[in-house]
Amino acid sequence: MFHRKWHWILAALFVLSIGGFGFFNTRTQQEPIKIYKMVIPNPKTRAITETNTERTKSSVQHEHDHDHPHGTLPPASNDEVDWRDDSAFDSTLVKKDSWKQTYPQQASTDDTDDTYPPRDWYKTEDPELHAEYFYAQLLKQFGDIPEVHIIGEHKLQIAKKVPITDDQWIKYLEASQVLWPNEKNAELLEALQKEKVEAHQ
């Protein structure tokens, strides 16, 4: 019956497929899925109006005596804050990410002093106006510090096509390193400072 090789191969594949199907299709008993219904009670209707309860008589022994009724505390007066009511605290929480960095493309919409530079200042095609907006944005972002003035003036000089000296270029790189630390910037700054020292010797 199995005189050729492909008959044996076909029979082996058939046996392996039946065995694999039986092995991987084991009927393990699965745990039933439990679905819980979540109920959120309304804090305003939680106040229990009953203050007196009847004594319970049961055959089950308790570890405490039932000679006194289990009453509930009266609801808080109007002068006090009810600790069970969270609605007073929800409105006071400010949901703001203080670690989020603001980029020009993602400027927040709740700023009131957004008149200068305009929100889409980075789309400006005029080089001088773009440099002026960049300078204003740096002042807005970092404040009135010397590094901001050095970088802003450098960008304005480039936009106006004013030649820049080596000293100005080094000051610009130093200021950039303070505001935006960068390895390549530090390497370039070090190389320029070495060239300046070698030129003066």
Describe the structure.
The protein is built from 6 helices and no strands. With 201 residues, it is mostly helical. Helix 3 (127-142) runs antiparallel to helix 4 (146-159), helix 4 (146-159) packs across helix 5 (166-179) and helix 5 (166-179) packs antiparallel against helix 6.
What is the count of DSSP helices, taking H or I runs of 4+ residues? 6
Mean pLDDT: 75
Spatial shape:
flat
Radius of gyration: 39 Å
How far the N terminus sits from the C terminus, by CA atoms, comes to 99 Å
Helix content: 40-55%
Work out the number of β strands. Answer: 0
Indicate the proportion of strand residues: under 5%
What is the ordering of alpha helices and beta strands?
HHHHHH
Uncertain residue segments: 49-54
How would a crystallographer describe the biggest sheet?
none
What class, by secondary structure content? mainly alpha
